[in-house]
Known about the structure:
Layout: H1 2-27, H2 36-41, E1 45-49, E2 54-58, E3 66-67
Antiparallel strand pairs: 1-2, 2-3
Amino acid sequence: MRTRLLGSTVAACLAALCLAVPVVQADASPSPTVSSQDCTAKGGSVEYDSDKGQWTCIGGEHDGEAVP
């Protein structure tokens, strides 16, 4: 009897986790991006950020935004 109760509890917890994962992933909003042309046109420069592993607009109107 205890085995069934434990198994049912574990199954219910796993089901709740499986339902919650897509919701958590959908909440992650992508960071704003700007083209390199827009970055330089608005007074910024495009530089590689080795900490993030991506190109970033530095300075100007789009400071800190990722460049795809």
